[in-house]
């Protein structure tokens, strides 16, 4: 149904593990986003990529490392996470990130648990 | 002050009821406004954009008051399938498509 896919859908990792989240959009968009959604909190924007270039880093700790090899793929590399990083990580895409009215389409998210 | 603030909820209403959600935003440079819907354990999906003149889509009516920095969503004749969390979202002029989300208002429609 969705034009934005994310894998894995669920991930449990220890604090010393290294893992990666993957996002792919099939909509021909040029902007991609990572959001974090914690329980009872608003969605928090983490990173924005426009035409493969990072245009926003919302003061995200360096233990989260994004990578955008092309306009269709976005990764979030995770290492030495903390239990408070447990959350739903959502990827989104839009036509181009310089147009404020562009609709963002979300993937189903990866539910991450850090033990 | 939160950038986007919504009614705390949850709202529990019977089928057929009319329910209104309120939202205020703090940044006067906010330019575009949206309501997203998020079902339990699913991703947010755009419900409707909000225009200055107000707009309607079936049972849903959105209003914007720029002077008061206030947005509303009215749902008429609510259905069981309307049960979800409704997210008020704004984007700021000249911030490259960045969306600011409210914390959401949960709606539960009961038979």
Strand percent estimate of chain B: over 45%
Largest interface: A-B, 28 and 26 residues
Secondary structure: number of strands of chain A? 11
| Bulk shape of chain A | globular
Could you explain how this protein is built, in words?
- The complex is a heterodimer of chains A (115) and B (111).
- Chain A is mainly β and 115 residues long.
- Chain A is 0% helix and 56% strand.
- Chain A has no helices and 11 strands.
- In chain A, strands 2, 4, 5, 6, 9, 10 and 11 form a 7-stranded mixed β-sheet that branches. In chain A, strands 1-3-8-7 form a 4-stranded antiparallel β-sheet, with no helix packed on it.
- Chain A is globular and about 35 Å long.
- The model of chain A has no long low-confidence stretch (mean pLDDT 91).
- Chain B is mainly β and 111 residues long.
- Chain B is 0% helix and 57% strand.
- Chain B is built from no helices and 11 strands.
- Chain B has strands at residues 4-6, 11-14, 19-25, 30-38, 44-50, 55-57, 60-65, 70-75, 84-92, 99-101, 105-110.
- In chain B, strands 2, 4, 5, 9, 10 and 11 form a 6-stranded mixed β-sheet that branches. Chain B has a 5-stranded antiparallel β-sheet with strand order 1-3-8-7-6, with no helix packed on it.
- Chain B is globular and about 45 Å long.
- Classes of the chains: A mainly beta (115), B mainly beta (111).
- The A-B interface holds A 2, 31, 40-43, 45, 48, 50, 55-56, 90, 94, 96-109, 111 and B 2, 4, 31-32, 34, 41-46, 49, 87, 91-99, 101-104.
Quick recap of the structure?
The complex is a heterodimer of chains A (115) and B (111). Chain A is mostly beta strands. In chain A, 0% of the residues lie in helices and 56% in strands.
Task: Record keyword descriptors for this entry.
heterodimer; A: 115 residues; mainly beta; 7-stranded mixed β-sheet; B: mainly beta
């Amino acid at each position: 149904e969705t034009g934005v896919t994310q894998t894995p859908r669920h991930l449990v990792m220890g604090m010393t593990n290294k893992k990666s989240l993957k996002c792919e959009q099939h909509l021909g968009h040029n902007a991609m986003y990572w959001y974090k959604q914690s329980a009872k909190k608003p969605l928090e924007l983490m990173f924005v990529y426009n035409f493969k270039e990072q245009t926003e880093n919302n003061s995200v700790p360096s233990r989260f490392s994004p990578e955008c090899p092309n306009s269709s793929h976005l990764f979030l590399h995770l290492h030495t996470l903390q239990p408070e990083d447990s959350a739903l990580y959502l990827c989104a895409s839009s036509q181009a990130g310089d147009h404020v009215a562009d609709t963002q389409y979300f993937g189903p998210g990866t539910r991450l648990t850090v033990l | 002050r939160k950038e986007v603030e919504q009614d705390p909820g949850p709202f529990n209403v019977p089928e057929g009821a009319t329910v209104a959600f309120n939202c205020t935003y703090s940044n006067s440079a906010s330019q575009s406004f949206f309501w997203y819907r998020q079902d339990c354990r699913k991703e947010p999906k755009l419900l409707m954009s909000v225009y200055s003149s107000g707009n309607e889509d079936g049972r849903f009516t959105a209003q914007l008051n720029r002077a008061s920095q206030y947005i509303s969503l009215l749902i008429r004749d609510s259905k069981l399938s309307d049960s979800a969390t409704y997210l008020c979202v704004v984007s700021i002029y000249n911030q490259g498509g960045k969306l600011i989300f409210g914390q959401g208002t949960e709606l539960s429609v009961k038979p």
